[in-house]
Every structure is written in C-alpha cells, then in structure tokens.
Amino acid sequence: MRRHYTIDSEVVDVEVILSKRKTAAIEVRQNKVRLKAPLRTPLAWIDEFICSKAHWIARQLREQRTRYESHAIALAEKPEVFYLGQRVPVVITAGASNTTSRLSEKGFLIDISRRTRRDQTLVADELLRSWFADQARIDLTRRLGYLAETTGMKPKGMVIGNYKSLWGRCSAKGEIALNWRLLLAHPEAIDYVIIHELCHLREFNHSARFWKLVAAHCPDMEMYRDYFRERSVWLNWR
C-alpha cells in the first residue's frame, strides 16, 4: 500500500507494509520512505504517525540527496568514477573499431564500437562495472591474503560478489565474501571491511568482544564505519 504526503513542500511517496510486527517504524533508505506497522493499523493512525515524523523524514531525505550528489556513480550526470577513494575521469570515445575499456593516466578510457547502437553511457557503465569486478578478484584476493597472514585469522575460502546491501560477509563455514564495489573506497577503508569479516572467524556475532577484536586490528574502525555509511549510495551502482 502506498500513501502520499506533503512534507517540506514536497510530495513524498510512502510505502506502507503491514505485518505481524508489534510496533511501527519508519526507514528512509536510498531516497525512499517505508513505514512498517502492525496488521489492522488504522489509516488515520498511520497518517498521524507519518505527520509526527515529518521533520525527521525531511531531514533524512535531504541528507541522502546530499550524499547522492557527492558520491553517486552517474556517468550521464558526471563522467567520473571513484577508484581506491579517488575521483577518476571517464572519457568515452565513439566510433572505435572495437568496444574496449582501460585505465590510463588520463582516467578510464572507454572506446565504443561504431557498430554499437545502444546508448553509449549505458555501454560505458557496463564496461566499468565489469572492469571493477575483474580487478576486485585480483586486488581483494591479494589484500585478504595479506591481512589473513598478519592477523592470524585465515578464512577457508573467498568469494567476490555483486551484493545490493552489504560490503562483505563471513559464513558459518568460514568463507568470506567481499563486494567488488569495495574498490571504489580508499585502501584503508577496504582493509577495515576485510578485518571486520576476518574477526567474525573468531567472534561470529556483533558482541562487545567482537568490536574489541576489530578495534585491536583497526583502531580507526569508527571512522571507516561512518565512511561507508556516507557512501552507501555506491551499493546502488548497478
């Protein structure tokens, strides 16, 4: 069910999900507003609840839009991409004999074949994502191996994944998975995610003992947690 509200002079679409939960909660994620509430919650109560949270919703939407403008990968708007935390220009050249992509001192150079009839920006975006996924298998595998050796916490396997909502995970079997989009981040921030997942090999939870172990290997972990919260829009690059 969807409801529409005027918040801060803007019409905001709110997705309302009714379930067996006992309390109501609002989340604003990826510039979308969602309300989860118990079954049989009256519409009048829902409307009143949304209105009571209007200022908070407006602030969250403003902050998320600011983050989007600062960090989103949108070649049609800004011909650039992040690589290891740095902004790198993307140069698209049409009319080439073949469609190729490569990283040079000038940035990411994308040549589009003269035979291509698809939108050039979409083709360039696909090529870049493919490049990052391939490079991640090299760079993240190497970095995980190094940090596993230095921390003494060694996983039983590794996967480079294409995840929508997480940067990494550790399975109960001791296998670590890392999102290829980590290559967008600074190397030190990448290390934090890898260390975080390695620590789950000893503490398969998020207890105080777990965070103490992470801090022992990454004293600036709070800074990097904020770093990825600020750049959560990178998970939308697909």
Automatic annotation (TrEMBL):
Residues 22-229 form the YgjP-like metallopeptidase domain. InterPro entries: UTP_pyrophosphatase-like, YgjP-like_metallopeptidase. This is M48 family metallopeptidase. It comes from Neptunomonas concharum.
